[in-house]
Amino acid sequence: MNEMTRSDMSRPAATGPHFDRTQEDLGNIVELGHVNVTVPDQRLATLFYISGLGLTRDPYLMTGIENMWVNIGRAQFHLPARAPQVVRGTTALVMPDRPGLLRRLGAVARHLEGTKFAFTETEDAVETICPWGNRIRVHAPDPARFGPVRLGMPYVEFDIPEATPLQPIADFYVQILGGVAGVARDGRGEYAWALVGDGNQLIYRPGPQASAAYDGHHVQISLVDFSGPHRRLAERGLISEESDQHQYRFQDLIDPASGKVLYTIEHEVRSTKHPMYARPLVNRNPDMTNRNYVPGYEIGRWALPEA
After folding, report:
1. pLDDT tens by residue, 257-304
2. pTM for the whole thing?
3. Which residues, 6+ apart, have CB-to-CB distance to 162 below 8 Å?
4. Domains contained in the chain, number
């Protein structure tokens, strides 16, 4: 060992600003990829998701009338053409320009008469309902709450029965999936949460749609450790589909201690070697038309600039 190395080893540890390094932890679940609900009418879905909300139809995949993939930042809605499914809860979006959103929703209202479509403003969001009853809550960008997201899907909130224990739901995501999860409280009461990517969450809290029958809708997540959760799920008989080399599915969340089923929501689980993991998604600026077109401004940015 030379003198320079010995000298370096004797130096005190570097000092500097204190950082909470745990804020950088993602755990094993690194992506909330999509929410999948089936819809019976692709025309009405286009009116609501594309014209009304102002989202972007994926130009590369599922471009026919049998399915539609809709981009929202780095996440998607998948909308296969079948009998309608309704998430038992609320899917949240972050979008800029609330006045523009309200104008678009107002413009499509007459085309969606006779459906369940509706929208209202609240203090911190625009609450919308799709033609078949799916609830979508649109927030403005908020770095303190959603980080740098300008356009995205920050959480999906599932309504669970009042008596459902919350800590075992968090335990499931930690012990079975290797994620970061917990129980928290806000102005609406206690809820369980699981981190699913950079700032995105799945949330479970008592809510009005808890009694609705599960109809098969699903969410898609991606895991770094793909085989470990598969092994733990398989040992408990929870794998519902062996899709392919890069994907499997499960439906039941259980209490890891007792094995009791707590809630049913299908998770489509992908590996980070899946060909579509972190696929760059096209997003548009919905306020750009042929009448006000300016080159370069037709692109919708998913992230805010650094402060």
Report:
1. 999 999 999 999 999 999 999 999 999 999 988 898 999 888 998 888
2. 0.91
3. 206, 210
4. 1
